[in-house]
Specification:
Chain A: Residues 495-522 have a biased composition (Polar residues). The complex is a heterodimer of chains A (571) and B (417). Chain A is mainly alpha-helical. Chain A is built from 28 helices and nine strands. The two termini of chain A are 26 Å apart. The chains are: A mainly alpha (571), B alpha+beta (417). Chains A and B meet through helix 9, helix 10, strand 5, helix 21 and strand 9 of A and strand 2, helix 7, helix 8 and helix 14 of B. Bound molecules: iron/sulfur cluster and zinc ion. Zinc ion is lined by residues 113, 115-116, 121-122, 124-125 of chain B.
């Protein structure tokens, strides 16, 4: 990619053959843009796309929108009201391929802005993940607007290993196809394509497709999966390349300042909320009843009763504790105590202490792990003997009902919570649980267990200070930070005005425009910059000193132990 | 097996005379010396020392080090983009290749087996392993098209599966996760009593195939031998799987009329079948229930985290299990039913066998003074059979490589003309 930013506007040199550059409404972004543009335009494009992606995120978090069409409509409305009409157009483009000048300009903006954000988001694992997720979601919505012709055309111009099968071939496997192709009722009238199974992992994962000898047989309705999969992979690889490109432009300070500052221009609700103060571990037991979300309360309880938690549970709970300000020393104490009935101190030190230190970035790759958000918890897989996950998603109705009853939730609220859970409205179920426990609803939607905790503490401290001045008011005050390197909550308010309303539609107003990047960078707190710094430095200590662990001969725990090292590899 | 000190006495003999270094090296090279040299090995030594990121240029490097360190356990990791042993592994050091592996452990069956618990196994519960092996093996071959699959006894209470096709070795983490999830039918933690949910009206062909394997033995194995409904406890575990309260009550009453696990199972099947056909308003809830229950009680239970990552370590074949002394031997999936975990050779028996042979040999030599050809040591022992399985697996890999090379050569030739 050749971004030459000029102070003054420079015209794009290449004005010919743009239809060939942008043959379709949907782009796979295989080739980086070439040409020159003004810094202002560059900044504006990046800013617009970021806003659009934020809107994609918030729309996706709205559990009142049941179908994809609903979500698309809502997204379209908010794009328009935020002055991003051209994104609204992209969203509904059907691939019929009109060649107007306006269309081409829109496609071009789509192209360039995507690549700008690649530069912004390529450095930090957490941030890349966010970016990939939003881009993929946006892609999905856009793809769903395509007409059949548009899809076929896209298939033609993209270089995918995806071929239609002959009528004969189809007849031969008709039986299996109709068993295994998901919702299809009449296999005779659908077109079937064959593609290596690696290209449709979404369908493979869900067992929604017929597989034979490594080939997947995709109906034309499921072709979107092929494209989504390709898009995602391409993007992952693209972010790797972007890192290198970034180095080429890193001597242009105006650009780098803009690029590093951009992610913090808004803060999302689904972000980790880090506690600014420490939480003492002797309070955890009480806090688990008053201020933990149900997922963490369940884990805490399982830990107490079993004196053990399997790796995924330890990870979910351990990172949560890190987020609410339990120090590493305290965490080691806490876990050692909790395990003590089954595991003596020295065995604990050998078997588990490593992984606890690992959560705090003190071992192994020294990755700075962030506490899991609801989305990750909700989508985690939970196996026999495990207690992690989101209770509203991973408990069956009976177990959930029992659990809630034992926590004093009355029948009147019970059905509401259970029904939300049944309808996959986990956040609403969680919000209701919050309301029941606190006798008042949360002031904002909570999409992160640590945000739940922060909100709960805010309410209790308020109550406390209204009553007897029992607790130090600041003790649990929270500081909202985006993924490492965001703005503090106060600052983010400036940009994300309506996001506190529960209607989820908030995004920055157009006029709040992020005008000079330098200004933004100045407002970032210094300690946070440090966080960001440490994340950027690939800190990979070569670890040749043998690790001393006992009982490593026990396969199960050995597996646990190794898992930790892998976590940052998984998406 | 006594204690660790026994093992320390025996390991030198095992590693110098029995461990099949040549075949092992042949396997992990995959026809390319560089591949071998970038492979991570990790060793667990006697005093709880655990060393990661070992790598070796060649067979001799590996065998010398193993003979020197006498590891209690050897784990095989990924092939990296640089030699893991190299101290200068940079920030770009990362795994690039790895067999697709599966780990099935008996402890994950504790909620469905009644004969043993935890680390114990017996011939009854071993049947779960043999089912798992058959189901996975056929899915990997038929659905995914893999051919080079090595099954290995894990030394105590489980089995490992190594898929070694080159297409499998280069899969990304994401694709591995998808394959693992495709094969993972059992889901849900402690708070989810019903652990199999078949969506849709029809049953996926892969599940159907699994059911075809399960069906003929289900009653014998799960209902009778494991006595799944024979006890109060078994019934208590079973009832929460049912979709609603009335069913639970009705089923409980029906169960009380019967006294054996088998009779109760038939009562259940009958009850559900009547629900399916009687035009029950809620027939939808019952459409796959019998199949789902069968799967919950017998389908392979995988630890899919092991399969997802490229750099997950897995215990090596031919390792000695440090607690049982059993050798992690490869076995043939086609005759898995005949595999008896109790008869797996241990390091103790193997060494006795060699010693006995040596004594006989010596006696013979003295008597006849024959200048006999030296026989490979493992051939003198019960390890021989497993070695055959392993060598056959290697032959297939090599035959395919030859074929590929030939094809590659042919296409080059045809280009020249
Ligand atoms: S919705 Fe989020 S916070 Fe609430 S229980 Fe589920 S995972 Fe925890
Ligand atoms: Zn048993």
């Amino acid at each position: 990619m050749d971004y030459t930013a000029r102070k003054r506007h420079t015209t794009i040199i290449d004005t010919n053959g743009r239809e060939n550059d942008y043959p379709h409404d949907i782009q796979m972004y295989n080739v980086p843009p070439v040409g020159e543009m003004s810094l202002e335009e560059f900044q504006e494009l990046g800013f617009d796309r970021l806003k659009a992606l934020r809107l994609v995120e918030t729309t996706n978090c709205r559990s009142d929108l049941k179908t994809l069409e609903d979500r698309k409509k809502a997204l379209c409305d908010s794009l328009k009201s935020d002055g991003l009409k051209y994104y609204a157009n992209l969203l509904y483009a059907d691939g019929s391929n009109p060649q107007s000048e306006e269309h081409l300009q829109t496609r071009k903006k789509d192209h360039i802005s995507h690549f700008i954000l690649r530069l912004v988001y390529c450095h930090d694992i957490e941030q890349s993940k966010w970016f990939i997720n939003q881009e993929v979601e946006f892609f999905k919505l856009r793809f769903s607007s395509l007409e059949k012709k548009g899809i076929e055309y896209l298939l033609n111009i993209s270089n995918l290993d995806c071929l239609p099968i002959s009528q004969n071939e189809k007849l031969e496997m008709k039986e299996e196809l109709s068993l295994s192709s998901g919702k299809v009722t009449n296999i005779d009238i659908v077109d079937i394509y064959k593609v290596p199974f690696e290209k449709v992992i979404d369908l493979v994962r869900g067992r929604k497709i017929y597989l034979k000898a490594g080939m997947a047989y995709v109906t034309h309705m499921d072709l979107s999966s092929v494209f989504i999969c390709y898009f995602r992979e391409n993007l992952i690889a693209g972010l790797e390349n972007a890192k290198m490109l970034y180095d080429n432009i890193s001597d242009d300070e105006r650009l780098t300042r803009y690029l590093t500052g951009l992610p913090s221009a808004f803060s999302g609700m689904a972000r980790v909320v880090w506690s600014t103060t420490t939480t003492p571990i002797d309070k955890l037991h009480d806090l688990s009843k008053t201020s933990y979300p149900l997922c963490m309360r369940t884990l805490h309880e399982a830990l107490c009763t079993n004196s053990h938690l399997r790796n995924s549970g330890r990870m979910q709970y351990g990172l949560f504790l890190k987020g609410i300000g339990v120090t590493l020393e305290d965490a080691l104490h806490f876990w050692r105590d909790a395990f003590s009935k089954k595991t003596d101190g020295s065995a604990f030190d050998k078997k588990y202490a490593y992984s606890i230190r690992h959560y705090y970035g003190k071992e192994g790759r020294q990755t700075n792990y962030t506490p899991y958000g609801c989305q990750k918890i909700i989508s985690s897989s939970v196996g026999p003997g495990e207690y992690h996950g989101c209770p509203f998603r991973h408990m069956d109705r009976d177990s959930l009902c029992q659990k809630l009853t034992s926590y004093g939730v009355f029948a009147s609220n019970m059905t509401e919570i259970l029904d939300f859970a049944k309808d996959a409205q986990y956040h609403l179920a969680c919000a209701k649980y919050f309301e029941v426990i606190h006798n008042k609803p949360a002031s904002k939607p909570l999409l992160h267990p640590n945000a739940y905790f922060a909100e709960s503490r805010a309410i209790s401290t308020e109550d406390d200070s209204n009553g007897k001045d029992f607790d130090n008011k600041d003790k649990f005050s929270q500081n909202a930070i985006g993924t490492p390197g965001g703005l503090s909550s106060r600052k983010s308010d400036r940009y994300s005005t309506p996001s506190r309303n529960s209607d989820f539609t908030g995004t920055p107003k157009r006029n709040n425009k992020f005008s000079t990047p330098s200004r933004n960078i100045d407002t970032i707190d210094t300690p946070l910059r440090k966080v960001q710094k440490t994340n950027y430095t690939p800190s990979k200590k070569t670890k040749m000193t043998p690790v001393n662990i006992a009982e490593m001969l026990n396969d199960d725990d050995f597996t646990d132990f190794m898992d930790v090292d892998l976590m940052d590899q998984k998406s | 097996m006594g204690d660790v000190s026994d093992l320390l006495d025996l390991l030198p003999v095992y590693y110098s005379r029995l461990f099949p270094f040549a075949d092992y090296h042949r396997w992990l090279s995959y026809g390319n010396a560089a591949t071998f040299s970038k492979r991570e090995f990790s060793f667990t030594l006697s005093d709880d020392i655990y060393i990661r990121y070992q790598s070796f240029h060649d067979q001799k490097g590996l065998s010398d080090e193993i003979k020197r360190l006498l590891p209690h356990k050897i784990d095989i990791g990924a092939v990296y983009n640089a030699q893991p042993k190299d101290q200068r592994r940079g920030p770009n050091f990362q795994p690039v290749e790895r067999e697709l592996v599966f780990d099935i452990d008996m402890t994950d069956y504790d909620e469905v087996r009644t004969c043993c618990k935890g680390a114990d196994i017996c011939n009854k519960c071993w049947k779960f392993m043999s089912l798992a092996c058959k189901i996975l093996d056929s899915a990997l071959r038929l659905d995914f098209g893999y051919k080079h699959i090595l099954w290995v006894f894990s030394g105590r209470r489980g089995i490992h599966c190594w898929v070694c096709d080159s297409a499998a070795r280069t899969l990304s983490g994401q694709v591995r996760a998808a394959v693992a999830e495709y094969l993972q039918v059992i889901g849900g933690g402690e708070f989810m009593k019903k652990k199999v949910h078949l969506t849709g009206d029809k049953i996926h062909h892969s599940i159907k195939r699994a059911l075809d394997i399960i069906d003929p033995i289900f009653v014998e194995m799960c209902v009778k031998e494991q006595n799944m409904l024979g006890t109060e406890e078994g019934i208590e575990k079973f009832l929460p799987i049912l979709p609603n309260e009335e069913d639970k009550q009705e089923m409980k009453a029906l169960f009380n009329k019967e006294s054996t696990s088998e009779a109760r199972w038939h009562a259940f099947v009958q009850y559900i079948e009547s629900k399916r056909t009687e035009g029950d308003r809620k027939w939808y809830l019952y459409r796959h229930l019998i199949e789902e229950v069968k799967l919950q009680y017998s389908y392979p239970r995988l630890d899919i985290n092991v399969s997802k990552g490229l750099n997950h370590l897995l215990k090596s074949p031919f390792c000695v299990h440090p607690k049982t002394g059993k050798i992690c031997i490869p076995f043939n999936a086609n005759v898995v039913d005949k595999f008896d975990p109790d008869k797996v050779p241990t390091i103790m028996t193997l060494i006795e066998e060699i010693n006995a042979y040596d004594v006989r040999d010596k006696a013979e030599e003295e008597t006849y003074e024959l200048n006999k050809k030296r026989i490979k040591d493992y051939k003198k022992t019960s390890l021989n059979k497993s070695l055959h399985v392993f060598q056959e697996f290697l032959r297939h890999l090599e035959a395919e490589r030859r074929e590929e090379r030939l094809k590659g050569k042919l296409s080059v030739d045809s280009m020249e003309f």
